[in-house]
Amino acid sequence: MSVYRRWFCNCSGKPEELIYDQAPEEETLGEPCCERCGASPSSDPKHTILFRDEEEFKE
Length: 59
Ligand SMILES: [Zn+2]
Description:
Elements: E1 2-9, E2 16-17, E3 19-20, E4 32-33, E5 49-56
Antiparallel strand pairs: 1-2, 1-5, 3-4
The chain binds zinc ion (ZN).
Zinc ion binds near residues 34, 37, 39 and 48.
């Protein structure tokens, strides 16, 4: 079991999940970014970013 963090942005009035920008040649995930307003967890001028930790179950 592991926990992963999902990021959302509320700029459209309802939470939309952010998309991770993952460069194919890099092993580490980039920072997620809102496709609509461009906000990210470290750049959140309107405070629309929120996250939810979810448990991932493996069977
Ligand atoms: Zn947004």
